[in-house]
Amino acid sequence: MPIFVNPNNPEQPAKGVYRWYFHKEDDKQETVTTLYIGQAGKNKTNLLPRGTLYRGVGQVQRNPFYSGKGYTLDTNFIVGTIIHLLENKGYRCYWEHIDNDPSKEQMFVQKYKPIIQDQNGRLLTGYNMKLQNKWKKSMVQSAIEKVENKFTEDFV
After folding, report:
1. Which domain of life is it from (predicted)?
2. pLDDT surpassing 70 at residue 29
3. Average pLDDT for residues 98-119, to the nearest whole number?
4. What is the span of the domain harbouring residue 75?
5. Residue among 133, 134, 127, 131 nearest 149 (CA)
6. pLDDT at 56 over 80
7. What is the DSSP string of the chain?
């Protein structure tokens, strides 16, 4: 299970920027690799505020499965699948709220260089797994395997 470093600092729900990072469990030097940088609170479309912790928990739960109209996998599903894969391979994963200003997301992408995002903070090509037909709930296991294979091919 991933570790949430500072889930109540600031008090949630809190807008801002967060990151997922990991290191090998038995790594004495604890070389840290940033997986993903995200933000919460920049968009005002939600009725109730959704903070950075909400985003992190959603990612661990891999919910939602697909985005929009169902043609692409959701970022939460992708990030969560990779976190589960890393933990199963002996890595320790961490979530951390790193700033209270969601507009600083790009600055932190530049600083931490997350391995599944480009320099603009978008997921790298191939992770959204866009289909011509919609993703269906019966395809979850297939989607997990596709994301795991992509990440393993790229980084493990």
Report:
1. Bacteria
2. no
3. 97
4. 3-154
5. 127
6. yes
7. --EES-TTSSPSS--EEEEEEEEETT-TT---EEEEEEEESS----SS---HHHHHHHHHTT-SSEETTTTEE-HHHHHHHHHHHHHHTTEEEEEEEEES-GGGHHHHHHHH--TTB-TTSPBPTTSS---SSPP-GGGHHHHHHHHHHHHHHHT-
Q: pLDDT grade, residue 24 (50/70/90)?
A: confident
φ and ψ of 47, to 5 deg = -65, -45
CA nearest neighbour of 81 among 122, 120, 119, 36:
36
**Separation CA 36–CA 77 (nearest Å):** 13
Q: Once rounded to an integer, what is the mean pLDDT over residues 122-144?
A: 94
**pLDDT confidence of 27, banded at 50, 70, 90?**
low
Q: Are 35 and 59 in contact (CB under 8 A)?
A: no
Mean pLDDT over residues 92-120, rounded? 97
For residue 72, the one-letter residue type is: T
| Best CA proximity match to 19, nearest among 81, 103, 79, 89 | 79
The tally of domains found in the chain comes to: 1
Structure tokens of 103?
A: 């507009």
What's the rounded Cα separation, in Å, for the pair 155 and 30? Answer: 17
